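In keeping with the milestone schedule agreed at the kick-off meeting, the structural modelling team has produced records for the first pair of proteins. Each record is given below as a sequence line and a structure-token line. The laboratory manager (R.T.) confirmed that both were archived under the project's standard naming scheme.
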Amino acid sequence: MSHQNPSRPALTRHSQPKSHCTFCIQLACEKRHEQVILHTTRAMQAAWAMYERMGFVRSEDLDFSWEDFPVYGFRLRLE
């Protein structure tokens, strides 16, 4: 049995990450932030490509290592 709200379309495993990202961008705009920053890894290639399609740009100044594991920063400047 599904408990989904009939007024909201179903989120697939492919649309959910983009919906979350879009929500965060909208919220940042409403709060008049200048940018949205996120971090990801090489293992998340599908997400990496999605972020770039959404306008995020790799920002090496945001990169860091966590227990010798490289983590890559992305930035979306809001206007």
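The second protein of the pair:
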Amino acid sequence: MKSQAISDASFEGAEIRKEHFSPGEAAGVWGFSESAVLKWIREARVPVARFGRNLRISRKTLDEISERGLPPLPQKGNE
């Protein structure tokens, strides 16, 4: 009996949504280059989760930036 791979589209009639995206996938959604997204991550304008060397952007962040645009650069305070 062959095992079936779970598709990203549906499972038993329920839709499965991807919840985390690579910087390259986010760049495709936003219409920018991957290097631009990586720059924004370094500038702390795009929050990410790190799994070793892998970076993932949450769907919530992806949707918020899609709707509202990038947040401004963080201010360097006098600490």
